[in-house]
Amino acid sequence: MTIHEHTNTIHNWVRLLNSSDKSDRLQATIALGNWGSEARGAIHLLIDRLVDEQDPTLIEATTYSIREIGLEAKIISDRLLPLFVDHSAMIRRRALECVQSINSESQTLFIGIIGLMYDPEQFIYKRAADLLLSADLDVIRSLLRVENRTLHEWINTQPSRHGNRLLSIIAFACYGPHETSQLLEAFKDPDPIVRRIAAIAITWSSCLSLDIIQDLLKDDDTEVRRLLTCGLGRLGSDAVPTILRMINDQALDVRYEAIWLLGDLRSNTQLSISILIELLRNDPEPRIRYASVVALGKIRACDQECVLALIHALQDNDRDIQKEAANSLGEIGESAKSAIIPLIERLNHADDDIRNSSHLALQQLYSFVSPEDGAIADRLLAILMSGKGDLSRRYAIDGLLSIECYSKKVIDTLIDFVNDSDSYIRNRSVRALGDLSPFSLSGDVVVRSLIAALKDSDYSVRLTAIKSLQKQETNATLSIPALSKVLHDENQILRFHAALALTAIAPANPIPVQALIETLACPNPDNRRLAAEALGKLGASAVQSIPHLLRCLSDPIAHDAVAHALEVIKNECIRKGCDWQD
Q1: Could you report the per-residue pLDDT of 350-360, keeping only the tens digit for each?
Q2: Residue 561 belongs to what domain range?
């Protein structure tokens, strides 16, 4: 696409931002975000929409697009920061959600976020605190670097409401151990916001140590303790005993962060795992159980007590916990094989997200199933044959293909489902039948089923049937008349693959040659290469393709296959005494 075409496309999306049709505005907003920095000309209009839009989906899409396009320093100063002090908490929240992280390019944004530490809305304050907490020390130092003035002089010139004291505390944390005493003094300030900033700042400080932080964790402000608990992660595994103690804190937010941190640190000590299992099984707070199930998944604890606890959590009355329990079982891998049947039962769940998470977990576990495990195949067959829920049945047949269990019962079922009302089930059944050994006891029956699928109303099923017959090779000679008819199909791709299949099933059959010659001129380079390979297999029977192959010698993708085909055809013609002109 040319630069001019780029510009026109973006301009068209910008124009749609003012459409009266909500779906048009949504599509345009997401499209502009996908263009990233190339759509920076739309940023002012998107910020206008951020203020005026009422639809929650469109608001979320707008904040996404603003983050993806990126904010230049001037736009932050002129457009975003005024929204940080808007009288409407809703507008302040939307503006803050446009900020993905604190970077080294905008001091004004940094100062504005510090000002939001005093915001009365809990969400806004917490978002601002978490942005500061996740900031990189080098970035903060670069933001505090000033020319031709002392740091304190610069801080005192800043207009941020309440911000000067907070900036000073951050500066103390960033500029070496000689400032430690002033940083620790901030924890005695009666203003909890000052102590909270100190709790964030100390995580950047070289004075951060377990001895210091354990005493500070006694603060009576919940947020100070929460932020200090988050900071424990910077001390690594040495902090695990302290983190475990914070799980018993009286505040839910502190307990939640401590549990989450155990998962982030991958703390796989027996004590950590036992505590998380106990919380998952018995804690009355859904947030605590949720954090525990996520932490166990991150740790990938492999002992059976953990697996049993996660299986039990599949029945939790909180849907998010059920989903994460499935995800965690998938992450654990082979040690969680005992969860396969309980997860299969969840494929029939009424909740789409629970079905999906169970399916994804099973995809991670199926590779550990023996094809001889009839119990798992039976459970999947039961769902497939129940006729309830298209998605559940699709997940079930995916499972059957994944475990590669091809008992007579499974094969008979797959043959039946070649005629299913759902084209996805038909397609997967045809594909599975093609994967069977050409020498299986059900060979002729399988081939006849695949021949029947060549007449399916769905193009993808017909194509899969052709490819499956090709896999059966010489065992599929019964299909030659049916595949020969496909050579006259109006669809060029079906003609090409039928020719490939016939080449595999009856290598001496000259019938596919014309379809393969046609394919040498198709736009798909892989198909051109495959056609040349197939013509080479036909040998002297493909002598009429020589002029067409010669024209393809300049094709960089198909060249080697073409050269090989020409050599094979030439040599076989010479051997048989056929006409050949070099």
Answers
A1: 899 999 999 99
A2: 507-582
